[in-house]
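Case study 2.
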Amino acid sequence: MIIDIEVMNRKLDLAINLLRRTYTPTRVGGGWYHQLDMDPPGPTATGVALTAFHEANQRFEHFAEALSFLKSRQITAPNPDVAGGWAMNTSFGLPVVEATGWVARFLGLARCGHIDGGPDVAGAYRWLLCNQNDDGGWGSMRGCPSRTWLTCLALRALAQLDPYAPAIGRGVDWLLSRQDRVSCGWGAGVNAAGPPTVTHTGFVLLTLSELRIDRAQEHILNAYTWLEKNLDPSAIDDPQARIESYNVNQTIDGKPVVWHTILVHYGLPVALSALLRHPICPPPAPICAGFATIAATQLDDGSWPNIQGGQGASIWALWPFVQALTDISRLPLIRPADQLVLSPGLVAIQRQEVRGRPLTSLLRTQRWLAVARFFARFWASLLLILSVVTGLLLVGAGRFGWQDFLLGLILPIGLFVLQELRQRHGKR
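Prediction:
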């Protein structure tokens, strides 16, 4: 199980170069729309794109202009429930967590609080605090039902702006109180209702990691176990949570307004980012298999397939993959009781549980495990090949007739077909 860092860097460069090509200047700066080949820019996509540059450790030549655009779109009003946030292009000018969470997190990550002419970071922080629901979670804005994804967006932003804000503790309590008691995962609906999904469970675990919550607790470790068990590393999206959609009801100037929000989720990169932060040890098999899938499915333009079915690249078909790839590059390998084995051209980490065993014996064990996995995957194919070769030799030697040979292939062919059907069903 190998992750090629050179391949990873090429994939990252392709994605970041797509963002460079699709940047759109405006009268007050510039940015991105969520459909990257379209305009006008919006604050959400602009915040997400700038976060991608920051996470990939890439300098963006239009950084100042993008900040000016975000400043121009920040809401200013005497009402603290409104001032300091950002609206989506479709939210009737009302600031929402779906936009403010992403922009505020970027501003915290990039340490933009003291940049002259930049957005009001303190105002963004106050907006997030003012729009936390009484139950501790976040909806699109105060008074909207709390949702798992939106609560995580707000908490990830606060973690960068003030990791000791009391609102974080209340938000974490909301998340933990909504954990499914049977699976230990999290669902997508209002108040985390509905069956747990790989996407939402991964996003919660990713959020808890960024908040430095003690993840060695049994109920959180069980969530990691559930995530690893239910993740399909051969598919970039989670069939249970591709699209999260809901209506937002508000009142403007005494008149009711309703808009529909659609959140596009890619389960594999979100889960991969979570598993890379496993508090005991990142599981190598799903991580390596997931990386292979991400590398193989990237499109020529640098994005990944648009699961909404539309044409053109989407910021949502790029950002989570950039996050996962950069997380791999920062994988914390060493744990407190490990041993570091140094040799010319080789750096190895020997885990606490195998201290004292020669490194050569560990490498032999890994080779045998690889052979065992190969036979477990292809045993029916190997049985069919062996049956064909053996049958042909016996026919050639006059021990079998052709009719006997063909009849003898019925069972191995049936087993081969059955295995292939099970493999394909497991990948769906």
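The CA atoms of residues 254 and 261 lie 22 Å apart.
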